Amino acid sequence: MNKKVISFKQFSFKYRSQESPSLYDINLAINQGERILITGPSGSGKSTLGRCINGLIPNTFKGEIKGTLERMGGDAGDQRIPALSKKVGTVLQDTDAQFIGLTVGEDIAFALENDAVPQVEMKKTVAQAAKQVGMELFLDQSPHDLSGGQKQRVSMAGVLVDPVSILLFDEPLANLDPASGKATMHLIDRIQKETGVTVVIIEHRVEDVLAIGIDRIVLVADGKIVADAPPDQLLCSGVLEANGVREPLYLTALKRAGIPIVPELHPESLDHMRLDGAGAALLAWTHAAVSEKEHPLGQPILNVSHVNFHYEPDRPILEDVRFSVRKGERIALVGKNGAGKSTLTKLICGLEHPDSGTIYIGGGDISTQTIKERSEHIGLVMQNPNQMISQNMIFDEVAFGMRLRGSAEEEIKRRVYESLKICGLYPYRNWPVSALSFGQKKRVTIASILVLDPDLLILDEPTAGQDYRHYTEIMRFLESLSEKGMTLIMITHDMHLMLEYTERALVMADGRLIADQPPAELLSDADIASRANLKTTSLYHLAERVGFSSPPTFVKHFIQSEQGRRSCDENAHAQLH
Amino acid sequence: MRMHMLSYIDRATPIHQMTGAAKLICFILWSVIAMTTFDTRVLVFMLITGVIIFWVAKVRLSEISFVLSFILVFLLLNNLGIYIFAPRQGTTIYGTTHILVHLPGIFSLTCEQLFYQLNVSLKYFAVIPFALLFIVTTQPSEFAASLNRIGVSYRIAYAVSITLRYIPDVQRSYHEIAQAQQARGVDLSGKQKFGRRIRRASAIVIPLIISTLDRIEVVSNAMELRRFGKKKKRTWYHGRPFTRIDYLAVLFAGLLLILSLWLTLQRGSRYYNPFI
């Protein structure tokens, strides 16, 4: 049990292309069979730490190393990836791009093929590994027929064909819907129990990882290890929030109710946490008045009426979808992958045409309008900003849409500056886009749509891949747009986003709209939640555990109090400046 | 929506069941025959065989029509080119002159020239069905395995296969990007002037290149982490041993090559001459 598999000693690393080190003075030991969560905000160095563990550093990414790093008891310098990868299996974040083979079986076999293992033996090992992750019936499927969760299972099987002693997961939850994320964590849990491997998970969604039981949390910030402790201790120290990582929601709720979090309560897992007496305090807190924020709504601006759509005969993608949206609304469009969410947005933007049914915008039927005419009313922001940005300079990128419309250069300048100011990018107006972070690029794409002054903004996963700090930044920004009267529809897998920043959830499953209700109510409906691959938040679970009669009311109270705190913060912030 | 052109089409036919290596060998032999002979009878026989095999493989014309029309345009240009630059090639080869239409200079249309150009076109038609069939009935990874089997380094073979493997993905992201740009007001319809259309196309091409490069980095890391390129040799999950149909096909193509060579040697010329 106590055999060291990874040992960093006064380890520093600087990428060749960068000015300052990405990791400083790292001291970290990982023992055989441990479950470690490495967390930290974006750019903290946690991914770099992962690359050191699997050997991409120093083999592929060159740079300057100080101190020592021992893997499996050997020194890092003489360990090349081929030998190392038999010991350290890595599952990358992007489930699509790492799928190398053309079928499930071939992808799992990839490492064996490279070892020139004879075919008969290879097929046997592949079948075994596939069974371990529950994909044995899919061996001949191509990646396009698989869901994100299934692709991830295949990646896992692909490293399990080796006798690995460490499994390294790089943000395993980033691209999954809530239910698939939960299933992934349980699979990791099961494999660890069966094989006794060391599991290292790099992830900023702490609450979801904690669900399977973690031995230690390593918190990385600014290239240093800030904390390295068992979850029960670390969660009590408040060090996560201080470093821009979100703590589990149930803990935030308990803190708000004035309950001190101490290790003796076992805050690591809500199921096993001691909550004696917490009920009364929470109840008292729920009764405290919270100023409810008025969010005035205007006229209906979008009306989707009995819309049907299909690509292939007998396989309807959308069936009888109908809803209407009023000006100023904030809506979450949720449901599992392939439920029809993006098709619905395509229809609204006019990229596809409904087989039957109508879509009205601002009272007029838009079926006769071209995509370009519709783009005056509706703005679409894609998930990956790299798929939208086509210009070198920030100013040009934001101006692009107006130039296409042939606006006068004076007018363009005025509106681009205005839009950049709203998005907090005005100081960077003359910068090249490539100098920006991912989150800033996302804001550039929002600015480039805002400049066209649409009535309705549709955002696909506005916060995907963002840490808590950037997540809050983007969402507050969208909130401020909404306060100015912008209507927002957000496609998301993030239940927290839906709860905290929207008032209404549209739930799609198998091409139908199966629910249209406030998010807090939606998540208390177990049937709909499971049909749409959603997951109830830990706040419900907390409310249930302390025996509240109406968990949704508790959740609603929590959300409103958080919103109240946010606007207080903002006022304070505004007064400071 | 479906815009996969020239990618593997999975159907249960004898042609699909053949190993990639056998198909590749047949294709190479077939090309050698078509390149070396101008014997109209052999070429016609090859064309007919090609069409039959096409029918056996259950590939629909609509699935390859785009590429086919592309090839036909080139063929037409090629024919025009030959006529413009060498209008008397046929007469030189066949040694007789049967004028059909009198035209100024050397441009009179002769039976010999027509026959010669017919043969050139036949050469195309003898190979095209096989080239297309090979691509649409061979799984990219099996294709890599077969290249490797006939002696190509597996690194090169895999590079080719992975390119084929990601073509549909790139097509898909092209489609997504195009739609996002259209939703932003980029007009991709034909109503624009050519210059503006080119400029607007860059609104799609640049994001496509950037996201493809991102992807390449991830894939190459993923491949390295699973030991690609470590050893000199590599085995293939999808590799298959030769079966009877493979041997028969290779035998058939080989015999045809021998027959064609024999005809050429006997005649002492690559050209079948109906004019003497």
UniProtKB/TrEMBL annotation, chain A:
Subcellular location field: Cell membrane
UniProt KW Cell membrane keyword: yes
Domain ABC transporter intervals: 6-247, 302-535
Protein family: Belongs to the ABC transporter superfamily.
Lineage: Bacteria, Bacillati, Bacillota, Bacilli, Bacillales
Protein name: Energy-coupling factor transport system ATP-binding protein
Tagged with keyword Lyase: no
Predominant localisation class: membrane
Sorted UniProt keywords: ATP-binding, Cell membrane, Membrane, Nucleotide-binding, Repeat, Translocase, Transport
Classification via InterPro entries: AAA+_ATPase (IPR003593), ABC_Co_transporter (IPR022216), ABC_transporter-like_ATP-bd (IPR003439), ABC_transporter-like_CS (IPR017871), ABC_transpr_CbiO/EcfA_su (IPR015856), ECF_ABC_transporter_ATP-bd (IPR050095), P-loop_NTPase (IPR027417)
GO molecular function, one term: ATP hydrolysis activity
SMART domains named in the record: AAA
Cellular component, GO annotation: ATP-binding cassette (ABC) transporter complex
PANTHER family in the cross-refs: ABC TRANSPORTER ATP-BINDING PROTEIN BC_2655-RELATED (PTHR43553:SF26), HEAVY METAL TRANSPORTER (PTHR43553)
Organism encoding this protein: Sporolactobacillus nakayamae
Topology class, membrane: Peripheral membrane protein
Pfam families (alphabetical): ABC_tran, DUF3744
SUPFAM superfamilies: P-loop containing nucleoside triphosphate hydrolases
Role according to the record: Probably part of an ABC transporter complex. Responsible for energy coupling to the transport system.
TrEMBL record, chain B:
The keyword Membrane appears for this protein: yes
Transmembrane residue ranges: 20-36, 42-59, 66-86, 122-139, 201-223, 244-265
Protein name, as recorded: Energy-coupling factor transport system permease protein
Compartment(s) of residence: Membrane
Membrane-topology annotation of the record: Multi-pass membrane protein
GO annotations of cellular component type: plasma membrane
Presence of keyword Membrane: yes
InterPro entries per UniProt: ABC/ECF_trnsptr_transmembrane
High-level lineage: Bacteria, Bacillati, Bacillota, Bacilli, Bacillales
Record keywords: Membrane, Transmembrane, Transmembrane helix
